[in-house]
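MODEL INPUT / OUTPUT PAIR
PAIR INDEX: 1
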Amino acid sequence: EALSAGIQAAVFDAAFAGVSPDPAIIRADRSQPEFTRPVWEYLDSAISATRVRRGQALLAEHASTLQAIEQRYGVDRHALVAIWGMESNFGQYMGDKSVIAALATLAYEGRRPAFAHEQLLAALRILQHGDVQPSRMRGSWAGAMGQTQFIPSTYNQFAVDFDGDGRRDIWDSSADALASAAHYLQKSGWQSGQPWGVEVTLPSGFDYALADAEIRKPISEWRQLGVNNIPAADDQARAVLLLPAGHRGPAFLVLDNFRAILKYNNSTSYALAVGLLGDRLQGRGEIRAAWPLDEKPLSRSQRIELQDRLSARGLNPGPADGIIGANTRKAVRAFQQSQGWPADGYPTLHLLQRLQE
């Protein structure tokens, strides 16, 4: 199959030399943690004082390169350095697995074999292009590579040679890695000069059902709804209201650049961490509102039970997979409305207990 896709036999043989199924990759792929950290604990770790200091030092050290990247791609340097910190702790932890061995194992016996299969062929194209030797093509167990943790297909589409040495090297060239991330964000809809989002306060009696990723309103409309603390901004820019810990926690209006970060990693906690870390690198970004520290997130088995019970009530949360996606949030919101509760779509232990009655 690789030969028919244009991969040279010598490239294939070099890539697969010594490759055999790796049981550790299968274990990592199958392990689904029972417990997840609350978003505030995740952010405390992501935006630690140590990471902020290191990021600020690197902003100064790489100032000229970052300025050139900003000029070419229009992506804010603080967001780039934040992604660099989040993805590999600024190039310190890139993963030590052979990407070919990891993807071959996942294509052979993983949860998403077709995806791994596609990425494996993409990885062979990278080797054929000559950007990296097989021994250096190392990354995470899932096949993410380099200082900015690109999967092979993302690399082929967006990686750039910014330092001009003739190779797109996201492993050993921070300039290439940061410019590649900027190119990816630019193509994902990054708006130059626009913030990722802002913390806001909501008026009493606010309709929390408006905190839905599918509801995008111009800033001017959010103002009319009584949303406060919105700084001077383009009133026609469209924003989504995000309540990462439900109505009892902080509220954010997030704009197009938040959506671009989600293309990089489709996790609202991750995108929030990148946005806030970028702000913190500039000496701001402290969250004003309190987190509901008494509210522990549901475990995986509790989330599955929640979905089963919502389904039994005809609320269509989607498959009982323990993943709180758009359909589950919609079902949670419908149940909250039936109880006369704030319909923020945020699943809690109290809500599950009511479903158990």
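PAIR INDEX: 2
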Amino acid sequence: QALIQGSMDSKSKPAQVKIGVLYDIHYMSPELLLNGAENGEAFQAYLAYDPKLLQFSDPIFRTALSKIQREKPDILLIPGDLTKDGEAICHEAVAGILQQVIDNGTKVYVIPGNHDINNPEARQYNGNESSATPTITAAEFTALYKNCGYDEAIYKDAYSLSYISQPFTGLWILAIDDCKYYDNTDIAIVSGVIKDETMSWILQKLDEARANNIMVLGMMHHGIVEHFMGQNAVDPGYVTDNWQVNAEKLMNAGLKIMFTGHYHANDIPMWNANGKTLFDVETGSLVPPPSPYRMI
């Protein structure tokens, strides 16, 4: 367990900042499984295609949060895939559970993942059958999670759901939305991209942070660098598009750490260029074993 330390005003922040990270919760409300649907043909076909412990996601999520809260973190980062497939009922449950964490004194920050918004695959299961159930829009996402970064943001990007929050003087959380939910049609797009306009906004803000000696911690859903050589060729869609160009832009602007997920693994690669280094701190998903979380 490492503790981030810096030359911040001790009156405005703890002497040390403790941060929890949860990734890829894929929360599925128990209300989406009716009449023994967990053993039904439709739900079992979904699991055969994408194996996860979805029917246990509620107790797994609550248990992970209980363990994290015992460590009394100042901040909790949840960078995407909060829900199974963007079901409105799942988002409402997650937002309600996270409010309890906020009420206990931890600052919570979220961004969407590829499953979370405008997802045509949102389903309810009843016996052997499944049917469509409401998903949410980008505007509804920010409204539901207004207490998880959006209302307190000091800066918001006009082209995505990216934002910057300042939990303590001298520390920024750069939350980058690189998902393509705006292009979803009959399926949810797995891959991600940082829009050119969003990258321009990020680089401007990183210049401001560097000029004011502010530490910036980034988080995004997709990986910002490959976690093994050729990952993008073997498993396309898990590292953000144009990752080499964007990683170097972020490094040159002063970013050193990006918290990522999406690939459901624990791993920390580093990317070196021009004498600078960017660490991609990937945390695994809660719903495949061993249901990890991370403390920094």
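PAIR 2 NOTE: Residues 1-11 have pLDDT under 50 and may be disordered.
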